[in-house]
Amino acid sequence: MKLYSTNNPASAVSFKDAVFNSMPQDKGLYMPVQINCLPNSFFEQLPKLTLPQIAFEVAHHLLGDAIPENDLRNLINDAVNFDAPVVKLQEDVYVLELFHGPSLAFKDFGARFMSRVMSYFLEEGEKQLDVLVATSGDTGGAVALGFLGVPNTRVTILYPKGKVSDIQELQLTTNGQNIRALQIDGTFDDCQALVKQAFVDDELNEAFRLTSANSINIARLIPQTFYYFNAYAQLLREGKSNVAFCVPSGNFGNIGAGLLAWKMGLPVAKFIAATNANDTVPAYFKTGMYEPKPSVQTIANAMDVGNPSNWARIADMFKEDAEALKQLVESHSYTDEQTHQAIKDVYNSYDYVVCPHTAIAWRALTDWQQNHPGITGVFLSTAHPCKFPDVFSEPIASKVDVPEQVRALASREKHAVSLNKDFASFKNYLLSNG
Fold first, then answer.
1. CA 351, CA 14: separation in Å to the nearest integer?
2. Nearest Cα to Cα of residue 181 among 128, 119, 131
3. What are the distances in angstroms from CA 103 to CA 109, 112, 172, 246?
4. H-type alpha helices, 200-309
5. Average pLDDT, the chain
6. In which band, very low, low, confident or very high, does the pLDDT at 180 lie, cut at 50, 70 and 90?
7. What distance lies between CA 188 and its chain's CA centroid?
8. pLDDT at residue 7 is higher than 90
9. What percent of the chain has pLDDT over 90?
């Protein structure tokens, strides 16, 4: 497998190099040189395959000989050891539950796969790997658990002070061992900017072997394709084949993975990118102008992104046909008030509790379906509702089942270092605590 930078199509690096370098020095993002369709035989047998079997076939198709087959199969069986069920709520409305992993968020797919890929490629005696990750909520917890105790690695998590839920913060700051947390006095975009700047800083790259666990890393994106194929397999078993996916979107890695799956042949009628008040992408679809803006805080905090990194990958996939992108994808934004109402509507309609991000996706899907009857809609549930207790009214909150691993967090001690958002402070911290 070879990958190029979205800022330099003539470049070509190996999968291993792309995983460890995360972001090219030209500040682009890595993309596969070739994205071929999976063979017809794969789709013919798809309804019979398990999630780990699907994950192996998709990963092997993309990665080629980057990882030998037996090693890749063992790696996937270890990383993808939890389910991602599609649950029917009503005729042609399904929810894809992606919160059954250890951190209770969809980020477990990417974080667990990536940590095991990095561990596989790390050779004895090599320089310690320093993993930098910015989080708006769920990424940090998934990465922390994915890398906890992995030899010869150290993870530094940057999160915006006061802008993640209490449970998310506990997942970031109570791990110890090789995981450390920095609370940044700023937004997620500020955290993301610090990480990106670190990768192009000569002094830091001389001192450390830096890589990222954000979705800018291609090893985070590839495993997120698995659950789109798996969801489609489940729907085929129910006789459904005309499908639209609605994806709660912040940094646009999740829907980027869906579009990568589409490029590999997954038949999807429509992708709907549902955002909160951070409407950079919905505005693009309305005006044709892509204009990043400062992020604003909402109750769907994991989507508080004003300059989504993965848009570069989406634009690159459709660089030769922007109209095709607009035919396949549409995007809509929703306010906090609309999100609260959607949470209530889902509960009243189905006796089902969703997190605020998932509520936005349900709202966008059902709004879209009013003018598109006959298409089966799947909205992605990206996090367990227990991570956002403050957004629910009492009747709904009482219905939330809190898993044991979350209850156990309350007794653990939090450790986080506070920093302002200027790069000099972050760089000094890294150099002083190397």
1. 48
2. 131
3. 10, 10, 10, 22
4. 202-207, 218-221, 226-237, 253-263, 280-287
5. 94
6. very high
7. 14
8. yes
9. 79
Identify the CA nearest to 302 among candidates 346, 247, 259: 247
Residue 356: what residue type?
P
Q: What is the pLDDT of residue 151?
A: 86
Dmax (CA) of the chain: 60
pTM for the whole structure? 0.90
189-235 pLDDT per residue, tens: 899 899 999 988 999 999 999 988 878 899 999 999 999 999 999 99
Q: Percent of the chain at pLDDT above 70?
A: 100
Do 4 and 31 touch, CB atoms closer than 8 A?
yes
10-36 burial: b if 16+ Cβ within 10 Å, else e: ebebebbebbbbbbbeeebbbbbeeee
- pLDDT average, residue stretch 1-15: 95
- Specify the DSSP element, H or E, that contains 24: none
C-alpha angle 390-393-398 in degrees, rounded to nearest 5:
90
pLDDT band at 82 (very low <50, low <70, confident <90, very high): very high
The reported pLDDT for the residue numbered 86 is 98
Antiparallel, parallel or unpaired: β 376-381 and 243-248: parallel
211 beta partners = 131
Nearest to 127 by CA among 182, 29, 205, 198: 205
- Torsional class of 265: left (φ above 0), alpha (ψ -120 to 50), beta (otherwise): left
Classify burial at 375, counting beta carbons within 10 Å of its beta carbon; exposed 0-12, middle 13-18, buried 19 or more: middle
Q: Which domains does the chain have, with CATH numbers?
A: 83-104+220-404 (3.40.50.1100)
What's the Cα-to-Cα distance from 402 to each of 96, 253, 339, rounded to whole Å?
19, 27, 22
Q: Please give the structure tokens belonging to residue 5.
A: 């930078």
Indicate whether 165 pLDDT > 90.
no
How is 292-354 classified by DSSP, letter by letter? -------SSGGG--SS-TTHHHHHHHTTT-HHHHHHHEEEEE--HHHHHHHHHHHHHHHS---
Is 237:157 a contact under the CB 8 Å cutoff?
no
Whose tokens are 């089942």? That residue is 401
